[in-house]
Amino acid sequence: MFADTNESETVFAPVIQAGVEALKAAECSGKLFIFHSSIPTAEAPGKLKNRDDKKLINTEKEKTLFQPQKAVYEQLSKDCVSQGCSVDLFLFPSQYVDIATMGDVATHTGGSVFKYSNFQVERDGQHFLSDLKKDVEKAIGFDAIMRVRTSTGFRATDFFGAIHMNNTTDVEMAAVDCDKAVTVEFKHDDTLSEETGALLQCALLYTTISGQRRLRIHNLSLNCSAQLSELYKSCETDALVNFFAKSAYRAMLNQPLKTVKEILVNQAAHMLACYRKNCASPSAASQLILPDAMKVFPVYLNSLLKTGPLVGSAELSTDDRAHQRLSTTAMGVEDTQLLLYPRLIPLHNMDVASDVVPTPVRCSEERLTDAGMFLLENGCSLFLWLGQACPPEMIQSIFNVPSLAHVPVDLRSLPELDNPQSQKLRSIIDSLLDQRPSSMKSMFQNGF
Description:
It is found in: Cytoplasmic vesicle, COPII-coated vesicle membrane; Endoplasmic reticulum membrane. One of its GO terms (molecular function) is zinc ion binding. The protein is an alpha/beta fold. It has 4 domains: 13-137, von Willebrand factor, type A domain (Rossmann fold), CATH 3.40.50.410; 140-224, Immunoglobulin-like; 233-341, Four Helix Bundle (Hemerythrin (Met), subunit A), CATH 1.20.120.730; 342-446, 3-Layer(aba) Sandwich (Severin), CATH 3.40.20. It is 34% helix and 20% strand.
């Protein structure tokens, strides 16, 4: 359509505005799929300026790199939510595009942001098509409003997710799909009864894709205890880390990264010190004492501190950091758990006759073996790690080449070979991909 155009500048906000008006004219909710590759520079509403300044990293002003440029985009998000218009953004940038601003519209409307840097059809085409297919096919509801109610003694005080809020109680979502999660923070501000427990109700009013208005209600009764040891015993560490990640990623918009990381460390130290003081048996001051339910909590926290948004390194692009920050905001507990502690699956001793995925091992370099083959996945990327002494017969059965040295360095997918090892490995990968909200980028790595 535009093959012969000489126009080199692009617009972004007016395209979404046109989509909102179209849905308004049709008197229905819906979703916009936006495919974009550059920062909008045309003289039109939503024009953005390049503000990617590496000099701001590790300074008090670093937070401004992740703050969306307000004006048009803030109002645009509100218009989308009021119309029930969700925005899914597929980006194909070769340079800075200000994802912090452009992606903010998608995040506040219950949408998703997909990013394919320096897109090449041969390398990224299948990845993009898989993401688009999943996005179109996923279960979804539109024009949603959620409210959380509690019994006496505690209350919902904050909400984290791909949401919009005009007040302190109603969580509005232009769309809500099966891959999004809302994290709720509760404040305990009065006495709770051990007899009656704590009661929660989450009510979600939404419109189905067929136009039916429905109400979905979840009721939950939780036990209460006056014993602090019982609290630590029942702690849901994965859910706790999900909350820590989302709260930290929100805080980095208003506070220096150094302060955000210090708060995370101090909160964790306070929690564990409280357990040591009130619940644990006396022990040497140098001994680390952890509740059984929180054994991996320090590992999770250390991983969170090393994620792209919190690292503060000039080696990472601002857009990549902003993209991970926005993506994590809508993640569920399982997704953040996997992101912060990837699954390491040994493949060299897999049972080709079994239908199940091999049992993962501890994600540590110590588990890697020179003659082994491992699959590492974190929900975003999929690594196939090959030891230098990996048996030639295994290499032949998987890659159809005689040795590790002959495996192509730019390989992005496995060849489809008619042997048990190849079929088993490809079925494992397909199984993992089916479980994830988006298609994972595949990479192959020679070890040692």
